[in-house]
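Example 3.
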Amino acid sequence: DIQMTQSPSSLSASVGERVTISCRASRNIDKNLNWYQQKPGKAPKLLIYGTSNLQSGVPSRFSGSGSGTDFTLTISSQQPEDFATYFCQQSYTNPRTFGQGTKVEIK
Amino acid sequence: QVQLQESGPGLVKPSETLSLTCNVSGDSISRYHWNWIRQSPGKGLEWIGYIYSTASTNYNPSLESRVTMSIDRSKNQFSLKLRSVTAADTAVYYCARLREWGMGFDPWGQGTLVTVSS
């Protein structure tokens, strides 16, 4: 299985701050990397697919980059509704695997 | 608007079979891959497997010996059976659509908590 490792596990940010979350794959996954946002008691919501493609309806302050084994999710200006847990997930091969999550809290 | 809704017992006894159904509305189940994913505090998000409209399946090797998925095109729903459950199978179970191989899971059902306990 491909292991997905996110860093940090949690972070504190202020409204308006730029937030960056990293995700590393245990081997090359090209650009087959997706990002999800999850709020308490809710299902994960797809934000970005294929490393950098914004899912319909997702604000443009979210962006993704990377390739191979190293990937980044960036929130250009953190908004109150963005405080949540974020997961990366590889879609390169089965079994599909997820990172352990990064919780973004209010500073 | 595509919506998925899980249903099934919230409590299952150890060694018994967990059975869940996902009802799909707003899209035909006769295309795309239909997935089960679970989430527990201990193991995070874990992909269980998918079933395609042709009824071909692909399961996570870690669960493959205990999992069966099926599809009912007449009801536009698909199902999960997980045999010989233990407390480690306690989790929130989600169903989700996968439109293309390299894309993400979207949308997801709201999830259903299944507790394994006597």
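Chain A has no helices and eleven strands. The mean pLDDT of chain A is 97.
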